[in-house]
Amino acid sequence: MEHKSKVRTGFSEFSKNLYENTKHKILKELNASEDDWNNPKWQLKNRISNVDEISKYINLTEEEYDNIKRVSEKYRFAITPYYFSLIDFDNPNCPIRLQSIPDVKELDESGELDPMNEEQSNPSGRITRRYPNKLIINVTNACPMYCRHCQRRRLIGNFDKNTSQEDIDTSIEFIRKHETIREVLITGGDAILLSNDRLEDIFNKLSKIPHVEVIRVGTRTLATLPFRIDDELALLLRKYRVQLSTQFNHACEITPEAVRAIDILVDHGVPVRNQMVLLHNVNDDKYCIQKTNEELHKYRVINYYLFHPKDIKSTKHFQVDISKGMEIMKHLEGRTSGMCKPTYVYNAPGGLGKVPLVPMENIERCENGYKLTTWENKTITKDLE
Ligand SMILES: *Cc1c(COP(=O)(O)O)cnc(C)c1O
Ligand code: SF4
Description:
This protein is an alpha/beta fold. It folds into two domains: 104 residues, no CATH class; 239 residues, TIM Barrel, CATH 3.20.20. Helices cover 35% and strands 15% of the residues. The strands form two sheets. A nine-stranded mixed β-sheet has the order 1-2-3-4-5-6-7-8-9. Strands 10-11-12 form a three-stranded antiparallel β-sheet, with no helix packed on it. α14 links the parallel β6 and β7. The two termini are 41 Å apart. Bound molecules: pyridoxal-5'-phosphate and iron/sulfur cluster. The site of pyridoxal-5'-phosphate (PLP) has 8 residues, from β2.
């Protein structure tokens, strides 16, 4: 309880003050109103995307200024004013800052660009297929914010580009011809950056294919641009029974604005699942992950996956050892609800798919059966049947 209470959330007084303060400065600087702030188009148009914009609001040291400038010449950045306002600039390890502001460590050249070999599993259009009965369509490479830890960095090029109508239709045609495909993931980039009309066109075409049972969309707007979520979008998702996956990595991203967006979706019957990424200094701490998952549970988000980070070029500083993830998963056992315990997985290189990482100490084969260890380290035996 004590450790958990120290984790910053989007609802803590500290976060609220920080947010109001920076928000006020930005609105004043841009001569904008509260309505502008709550307008997703305004948020996108006014993204903070160069170092001089950052230094309008924050005093950067000369070294910080130079580093951000140097990195951003190689890897662009863009932060919505909303997300930027959650940064605690007095804390070098602020989880919001680490995920959004370029870091000089990104210039480390090790790691791979496409460790998943997604390019190799592209049978047609903008499809990634690694499994028999589910696949991904990448509908855009744009995102409201370019996460520094992005596991799809290869796709996030130097400019924002939506997939062409032709490539989308070719992808849908492939699905139509392959009857084993029962689930289609619409992702990006951030799929929800497409207009409602373009989304509806995709949902409508897919829903006419009899073997497609489930449509899922991937979006991080709940954390980076919550104002994009409104009744109209929720009704559209509900109409086609679309299920949603998102990414919150730290409790301080779960703000009143984010919860407003979650509520709209869940109230309209859209299931929302979280796919967290385990990231060094952002959330590789058992109390932090417990608190974050409990906040999500509280607001009716399903804790679906905890992803072990992939070895991607320019994200080495976010790497964590698997033993850390195992320790976190073991900690969650019995100390919180099963609903706060996602499946911990690693995406095997070469497009081999997801591997669940399960602590093995719980079960051991013994002479007449199994030795089982409970969350309090008590052992029991279960006979062979
Ligand atoms: C993760 C992934 C999916 C979806 O897998 P679930 O375990 O059902 O969430 C589908 N296709 C690819 C290529 C994936 O990497
Ligand atoms: S929103 Fe997703 S795809 Fe876009 S930069 Fe962030 S992690 Fe990458």
